[in-house]
Amino acid sequence: MTPKLPIPKPTKFEKLPPEIRHQIYTHLFCHKPAPIPLGPGILEPRFGLPGKDDVRNEQPTFYTAIFRVNKSISRDALRFAYSANSFQLTADLSCFFRLSQTALASIKSLTVFNNCWIEGRPSTKVWDILNQKCSSLETLAVQPSSHLLWQALPHLKEYVHSFPQGQPKPRLIIDVYVWDRHFSFDTAEHEYQRALQELNGRTGADGTQGFMRPREIAIRLPKQVKQIDFVLDVNGGGVQALTEFLQSSSDLPLVKTTEPLPCKNYRVGSRVRHCYVWLE
Protein backbone atom coordinates (compact mmCIF):
# COMPACT_ATOMS: atom_id res chain seq x y z
CA MET A 1 0.00 0.00 0.00
CA THR A 2 1.45 3.34 -1.08
CA PRO A 3 1.75 5.69 1.85
CA LYS A 4 -0.12 8.95 1.51
CA LEU A 5 2.12 11.94 0.98
CA PRO A 6 1.48 14.90 3.20
CA ILE A 7 -0.45 17.69 1.48
CA PRO A 8 1.73 20.79 1.42
CA LYS A 9 0.27 23.82 3.06
CA PRO A 10 -0.58 26.63 0.64
CA THR A 11 1.86 29.52 0.65
CA LYS A 12 0.38 32.78 1.82
CA PHE A 13 0.32 35.45 -0.86
CA GLU A 14 2.18 37.88 1.43
CA LYS A 15 5.02 35.33 1.77
CA LEU A 16 5.72 35.20 -1.96
CA PRO A 17 8.90 36.97 -3.09
CA PRO A 18 8.27 40.60 -4.14
CA GLU A 19 9.17 39.90 -7.78
CA ILE A 20 6.49 37.18 -7.94
CA ARG A 21 3.86 39.43 -6.35
CA HIS A 22 4.76 42.22 -8.77
CA GLN A 23 4.39 39.91 -11.77
CA ILE A 24 0.88 39.11 -10.55
CA TYR A 25 0.11 42.81 -10.03
CA THR A 26 1.12 43.66 -13.61
CA HIS A 27 -1.82 41.54 -14.80
CA LEU A 28 -4.19 43.33 -12.43
CA PHE A 29 -3.25 46.95 -13.01
CA CYS A 30 -2.72 49.01 -16.13
CA HIS A 31 0.97 49.49 -16.87
CA LYS A 32 0.97 51.75 -19.94
CA PRO A 33 3.14 54.75 -20.92
CA ALA A 34 0.12 57.07 -21.26
CA PRO A 35 -0.87 58.80 -17.99
CA ILE A 36 -4.01 57.56 -16.29
CA PRO A 37 -6.53 60.34 -15.44
CA LEU A 38 -7.21 60.72 -11.72
CA GLY A 39 -10.78 61.81 -12.22
CA PRO A 40 -13.29 62.32 -15.05
CA GLY A 41 -12.32 64.19 -18.20
CA ILE A 42 -8.95 64.38 -19.95
CA LEU A 43 -7.14 67.71 -20.20
CA GLU A 44 -4.07 66.50 -22.10
CA PRO A 45 -3.72 68.05 -25.59
CA ARG A 46 -3.54 65.51 -28.39
CA PHE A 47 -2.17 66.43 -31.76
CA GLY A 48 -1.32 64.43 -34.84
CA LEU A 49 -2.92 61.33 -36.22
CA PRO A 50 -2.40 58.50 -33.74
CA GLY A 51 -2.33 55.00 -35.14
CA LYS A 52 -4.31 52.01 -34.06
CA ASP A 53 -1.60 51.04 -31.59
CA ASP A 54 -1.52 54.43 -29.89
CA VAL A 55 -1.55 53.72 -26.15
CA ARG A 56 -3.57 56.90 -25.54
CA ASN A 57 -6.61 55.16 -27.01
CA GLU A 58 -6.37 52.25 -24.60
CA GLN A 59 -8.54 52.30 -21.51
CA PRO A 60 -6.73 51.65 -18.23
CA THR A 61 -7.70 48.51 -16.37
CA PHE A 62 -7.56 48.26 -12.60
CA TYR A 63 -8.84 45.10 -10.91
CA THR A 64 -9.29 46.63 -7.49
CA ALA A 65 -10.87 43.67 -5.67
CA ILE A 66 -7.44 42.70 -4.35
CA PHE A 67 -7.41 45.94 -2.35
CA ARG A 68 -10.17 44.46 -0.18
CA VAL A 69 -8.47 41.16 0.74
CA ASN A 70 -6.75 42.42 3.87
CA LYS A 71 -4.78 45.46 5.01
CA SER A 72 -1.36 43.98 4.27
CA ILE A 73 -2.14 42.94 0.68
CA SER A 74 -4.09 46.14 0.06
CA ARG A 75 -1.11 48.28 1.10
CA ASP A 76 1.32 46.22 -0.97
CA ALA A 77 -0.90 46.27 -4.08
CA LEU A 78 -1.63 50.00 -3.75
CA ARG A 79 2.06 50.79 -3.57
CA PHE A 80 2.72 48.85 -6.76
CA ALA A 81 -0.29 50.20 -8.67
CA TYR A 82 0.53 53.84 -7.96
CA SER A 83 4.30 53.53 -8.39
CA ALA A 84 4.27 51.49 -11.62
CA ASN A 85 1.94 53.82 -13.54
CA SER A 86 1.96 57.50 -14.48
CA PHE A 87 -1.04 59.71 -13.71
CA GLN A 88 -2.53 63.06 -14.63
CA LEU A 89 -4.84 65.43 -12.78
CA THR A 90 -8.08 66.31 -14.52
CA ALA A 91 -10.65 69.10 -14.25
CA ASP A 92 -12.20 67.37 -11.24
CA LEU A 93 -9.49 67.44 -8.56
CA SER A 94 -11.66 65.82 -5.89
CA CYS A 95 -10.52 62.30 -6.88
CA PHE A 96 -6.92 63.29 -6.22
CA PHE A 97 -7.87 64.72 -2.83
CA ARG A 98 -9.53 61.43 -1.85
CA LEU A 99 -6.49 59.23 -2.51
CA SER A 100 -5.14 57.42 0.52
CA GLN A 101 -1.85 58.30 2.17
CA THR A 102 -0.34 55.10 0.76
CA ALA A 103 -1.40 55.93 -2.80
CA LEU A 104 -0.15 59.53 -2.60
CA ALA A 105 3.18 58.44 -1.12
CA SER A 106 3.65 55.89 -3.94
CA ILE A 107 3.05 58.10 -7.01
CA LYS A 108 6.25 58.54 -9.02
CA SER A 109 5.02 60.24 -12.20
CA LEU A 110 2.33 62.93 -12.42
CA THR A 111 1.13 65.47 -15.01
CA VAL A 112 -0.65 68.71 -14.06
CA PHE A 113 -2.43 71.37 -16.11
CA ASN A 114 -3.68 74.98 -15.87
CA ASN A 115 -6.46 74.17 -13.42
CA CYS A 116 -3.87 73.53 -10.71
CA TRP A 117 -3.05 77.26 -10.60
CA ILE A 118 -6.56 78.74 -10.52
CA GLU A 119 -6.91 81.02 -7.51
CA GLY A 120 -8.66 79.33 -4.61
CA ARG A 121 -8.48 76.54 -2.08
CA PRO A 122 -8.43 73.57 -4.53
CA SER A 123 -5.21 74.72 -6.23
CA THR A 124 -3.53 75.47 -2.90
CA LYS A 125 -4.51 72.01 -1.69
CA VAL A 126 -3.00 70.36 -4.79
CA TRP A 127 0.42 71.88 -4.12
CA ASP A 128 0.25 71.22 -0.39
CA ILE A 129 -0.39 67.54 -1.13
CA LEU A 130 2.38 67.36 -3.75
CA ASN A 131 4.88 68.93 -1.35
CA GLN A 132 3.86 67.14 1.84
CA LYS A 133 2.43 63.75 0.89
CA CYS A 134 3.88 62.69 -2.50
CA SER A 135 7.24 61.66 -1.04
CA SER A 136 8.15 59.27 -3.91
CA LEU A 137 7.39 61.70 -6.74
CA GLU A 138 10.18 61.50 -9.34
CA THR A 139 8.83 63.20 -12.47
CA LEU A 140 6.38 66.11 -12.59
CA ALA A 141 5.17 67.09 -16.07
CA VAL A 142 3.81 70.64 -16.01
CA GLN A 143 1.64 71.46 -19.05
CA PRO A 144 0.41 75.07 -18.68
CA SER A 145 -0.81 77.53 -21.28
CA SER A 146 1.99 79.62 -22.75
CA HIS A 147 1.04 82.84 -20.94
CA LEU A 148 1.34 81.15 -17.54
CA LEU A 149 4.74 79.62 -18.25
CA TRP A 150 6.20 82.73 -19.87
CA GLN A 151 5.28 84.79 -16.80
CA ALA A 152 6.43 82.18 -14.26
CA LEU A 153 9.69 81.30 -16.04
CA PRO A 154 11.79 84.23 -14.69
CA HIS A 155 10.83 83.19 -11.15
CA LEU A 156 12.38 79.73 -11.51
CA LYS A 157 15.62 81.23 -10.20
CA GLU A 158 13.87 81.86 -6.85
CA TYR A 159 12.68 78.26 -6.76
CA VAL A 160 16.19 76.93 -7.50
CA HIS A 161 17.85 79.27 -4.99
CA SER A 162 15.39 78.27 -2.24
CA PHE A 163 17.06 74.88 -1.80
CA PRO A 164 19.31 74.52 1.26
CA GLN A 165 22.98 74.12 0.45
CA GLY A 166 23.83 70.51 -0.34
CA GLN A 167 20.23 69.44 -1.02
CA PRO A 168 19.80 67.83 -4.46
CA LYS A 169 17.82 69.93 -6.94
CA PRO A 170 15.48 68.59 -9.60
CA ARG A 171 16.45 68.69 -13.23
CA LEU A 172 14.42 71.42 -14.95
CA ILE A 173 13.50 70.95 -18.61
CA ILE A 174 11.54 73.28 -20.88
CA ASP A 175 10.02 71.09 -23.60
CA VAL A 176 8.63 73.29 -26.40
CA TYR A 177 6.50 71.98 -29.26
CA VAL A 178 6.03 74.29 -32.23
CA TRP A 179 2.70 74.61 -33.99
CA ASP A 180 2.59 74.22 -37.73
CA ARG A 181 1.75 77.69 -39.05
CA HIS A 182 -1.50 76.35 -40.56
CA PHE A 183 -2.75 75.30 -37.13
CA SER A 184 -1.51 78.23 -35.05
CA PHE A 185 -4.15 80.38 -33.37
CA ASP A 186 -2.00 83.51 -33.62
CA THR A 187 0.48 85.11 -36.00
CA ALA A 188 4.16 84.55 -35.29
CA GLU A 189 4.80 88.29 -34.89
CA HIS A 190 1.95 88.78 -32.39
CA GLU A 191 3.01 85.68 -30.45
CA TYR A 192 6.59 86.98 -30.39
CA GLN A 193 5.59 90.38 -29.00
CA ARG A 194 3.21 88.94 -26.42
CA ALA A 195 5.66 86.27 -25.23
CA LEU A 196 8.49 88.79 -24.93
CA GLN A 197 6.33 91.10 -22.82
CA GLU A 198 5.27 88.23 -20.54
CA LEU A 199 8.82 86.94 -20.14
CA ASN A 200 9.92 90.43 -19.12
CA GLY A 201 7.05 90.87 -16.67
CA ARG A 202 5.28 93.57 -18.66
CA THR A 203 1.75 92.19 -18.67
CA GLY A 204 -0.17 94.64 -16.48
CA ALA A 205 -2.47 93.87 -13.56
CA ASP A 206 -4.57 91.39 -15.53
CA GLY A 207 -1.63 89.30 -16.73
CA THR A 208 -2.68 86.26 -14.69
CA GLN A 209 -6.25 87.20 -13.80
CA GLY A 210 -7.95 84.25 -12.13
CA PHE A 211 -4.67 82.40 -11.58
CA MET A 212 -1.97 82.42 -8.92
CA ARG A 213 0.70 85.07 -9.28
CA PRO A 214 3.67 84.01 -11.45
CA ARG A 215 6.07 83.94 -8.49
CA GLU A 216 3.70 81.76 -6.49
CA ILE A 217 3.38 79.34 -9.42
CA ALA A 218 7.15 78.87 -9.44
CA ILE A 219 7.90 78.67 -5.74
CA ARG A 220 5.10 76.18 -5.04
CA LEU A 221 6.78 73.54 -7.19
CA PRO A 222 7.71 70.47 -5.09
CA LYS A 223 11.33 70.12 -3.96
CA GLN A 224 11.55 66.35 -3.52
CA VAL A 225 10.94 65.61 -7.22
CA LYS A 226 13.89 64.50 -9.37
CA GLN A 227 12.77 66.11 -12.64
CA ILE A 228 10.26 68.75 -13.72
CA ASP A 229 9.28 68.90 -17.40
CA PHE A 230 7.56 72.10 -18.51
CA VAL A 231 5.67 71.15 -21.68
CA LEU A 232 4.52 74.00 -23.88
CA ASP A 233 2.77 74.51 -27.24
CA VAL A 234 3.80 77.66 -29.14
CA ASN A 235 4.35 78.92 -32.65
CA GLY A 236 7.61 80.15 -34.14
CA GLY A 237 7.22 83.59 -32.57
CA GLY A 238 7.19 82.09 -29.07
CA VAL A 239 10.42 80.21 -29.71
CA GLN A 240 12.05 83.41 -31.03
CA ALA A 241 11.00 85.34 -27.91
CA LEU A 242 12.29 82.61 -25.58
CA THR A 243 15.62 82.45 -27.41
CA GLU A 244 16.14 86.22 -27.19
CA PHE A 245 15.08 86.36 -23.55
CA LEU A 246 17.46 83.59 -22.49
CA GLN A 247 20.34 85.19 -24.39
CA SER A 248 19.82 88.45 -22.51
CA SER A 249 19.27 86.85 -19.08
CA SER A 250 22.35 85.91 -17.07
CA ASP A 251 20.42 84.39 -14.14
CA LEU A 252 18.36 81.86 -16.11
CA PRO A 253 20.88 79.22 -17.23
CA LEU A 254 18.51 77.39 -19.58
CA VAL A 255 20.54 75.91 -22.41
CA LYS A 256 19.08 74.55 -25.63
CA THR A 257 20.16 70.97 -26.17
CA THR A 258 20.03 68.40 -28.93
CA GLU A 259 21.10 65.60 -26.60
CA PRO A 260 18.61 62.79 -25.89
CA LEU A 261 16.81 63.74 -22.69
CA PRO A 262 15.48 61.46 -19.94
CA CYS A 263 11.91 62.51 -20.72
CA LYS A 264 9.28 61.21 -23.08
CA ASN A 265 7.75 62.86 -26.11
CA TYR A 266 4.59 64.44 -24.73
CA ARG A 267 2.95 65.11 -28.08
CA VAL A 268 1.59 62.78 -30.75
CA GLY A 269 2.90 63.40 -34.24
CA SER A 270 6.06 64.84 -35.75
CA ARG A 271 5.93 68.44 -34.56
CA VAL A 272 9.17 70.41 -34.21
CA ARG A 273 10.50 70.10 -30.67
CA HIS A 274 12.98 72.30 -28.78
CA CYS A 275 14.40 71.32 -25.39
CA TYR A 276 16.09 73.60 -22.86
CA VAL A 277 17.84 72.28 -19.74
CA TRP A 278 18.69 74.24 -16.60
CA LEU A 279 22.48 73.97 -16.27
CA GLU A 280 23.94 75.64 -13.21
UniProtKB/TrEMBL annotation:
Listed InterPro entries: 2EXR, AN11006-like
Origin: domain of life: Eukaryota
Pfam families listed in its UniProt record: 2EXR
The 2EXR domain, residue ranges: 11-82
PANTHER family the UniProt entry points to: F-BOX DOMAIN-CONTAINING PROTEIN
Protein name per Swiss-Prot or TrEMBL: 2EXR domain-containing protein
Organism expressing this protein natively: Exophiala sideris
